[in-house]
Structure formats: C-alpha cells, structure tokens
Amino acid sequence: MPKIHANNLHIEYEFFGDPAHPTVMLVMGLGMQLVGWPDDFCQDLANSGYRVLRFDNRDIGLSSHLDHLGKPNLIWGLLKRRIGLPIRAPYSLADMAQDAVALLDALQIEQAHVVGASMGGMIAQLVAGMAPQKVLTLTSIMSSSGAPGLPGPTPPAQAALLKRPPKGAYHPAQRDRLVEHYLNNSRVIYSPAFPMSEDARRARIRRGLDRSIHPEGILRQLLAIAQGPDRSPILQQIRQPTLVIHGKQDPLVPIACGRDTASKIPGARLVEIDGMGHDLPPGVCQLLVEALVPHFRSVR
Fold first, then answer.
1. What is the pLDDT of residues 272-283, one digit of tens each?
2. What is the extent of the structural domain holding 64?
3. pLDDT tier at 72, thresholds 50, 70, 90
C-alpha cells in the first residue's frame, strides 16, 4: 500500500475502483486501521461507480506513530472529563480532521463523499465544517455530536473498551491470546441481528494485529475523543447533503446520539438499522451500501 506525506505526517492509504470515478473517503474509528473497512464493502462501492479511499488515521496502523508525545494517563484524563475539568490531549479530533483534508490535497482530490464511522464520524463532521469545499456529501455512521447530556456506553461496553490485554499478550508468540482478548471484548458490541461466525471475526482481528499493533496510539486517540468539544454549533452550519446511519442496538454509542446528530444538521436524513450494534458485519455493510449509493448519486 502507498504512503504519502500530508500535514507533516506519513499517511498510509489504499484505493479501490476507477480513478475517473468520484471519490469516497472512508474515515475509520478509534484504534481501527484502514482494513477495519471490509474489503467487500469497499469493492461494492467501487462496483457502484466510485473510487474508494481508505486510510490509517494518525497514530495507528502504518501511518505515523506519535510516540514522542508520550503515553497518556487515560484513567486520570477520563476522571477529569467526568468531573468537568479540562483535558490536555496530545492532539485533537480537529487535528485528525486536518489530516484527512491534507490527504485529499496531497492526492490532488478536489472533492469527495466523506464517510466516517464512530470516531471517524466525528472526524468527518469536522471535515465538513472545516473544509466544506472539499465535501460533496457527508455520512456519519454510529457516531455522535459530542453534546453534553447524551447517553454514554452501557457498563459492559465501557468495560470492554477500557479492558487491557493480559500481561505479555503483545508478544508475537502470544498472538492467539491477544486475538481472543479482542474477540471477547468485541462480543459486547456485536450486531445481534447480523451474525458472523467466530472464525470470520477472528480472521478480521488477526489481520489487523498482523498488520500493526500500537496500543499507545489508541490511548492518545481515546483522549482526543474525551477532549473533543460539543460539535453542535459546527453541525448546525453544515450545508452538504448529510446521511446519519445508526444501529438501534448500539451499546457503545447509543441510538440517541445518532438521532441528536441528525437533528442538528439541516436537512440530514436519519437511517436507523434495527439489530445493528457497533460493528460492520457483512449484513450491515450490505445495508450501508444500499443507503450510501443513492445518497452519493443525489449530488452531481
């Protein structure tokens, strides 16, 4: 996969589809690499007449790791957030949005349909607010506006998010233990109506771990989310055609967050998927493609 210099970082990226077709930029969520967007999903969008761009966010995968910024104290940061004190994160979601815009510029892409999932949805929202001239349409999937008062993760989902792997699991010889750790944690957020075999889930997890392991980057990304301000004022200024997609059974970012996001973007359309949690199994991806392609085609 190629790498390009953008916003003083090296960004790993990959294309699917014909370069002559309109670009769809996919922005992935917390700790997830570009392969978190399933290959079949990307290919289905490419077969529908789009050039699909997926990339590793900063501090994850094969993009630049920012270890010189130090290992953050996550527990202290989350405690400060809970009691209303300001958090000093190594970088912000706005910085990550600037990465996405800089990547488009470096690749000489004038405009793109911008699609983000979870933290990637937050980044996509900021891209639409910061660089509206670059965005043909916006899609925010299983994400949030960051407004105060919205419900947070269920206790099991929060515990899974913060649970650390067993000691020594990052050693290459312990890869099976690490795969099982992530499999057990992610069972909490699976989509109940869209079953996927355990072997297929293990294969997805192993593919990411074999590609790159960078736990400190996940901590820094998580603090960027925790530091993030209420994006409601930005959302109210967005004028690009917007689609908000959310699972009704999402335990990590509850459906109320998607409804709130859609209510704050003028003209946004909300699609609620019954039985969808906080993941991208094949059945969910099929429904996403069915919603996304007409959304993209609404803009010439």
1. 999 999 999 999
2. 3-152+215-297
3. confident
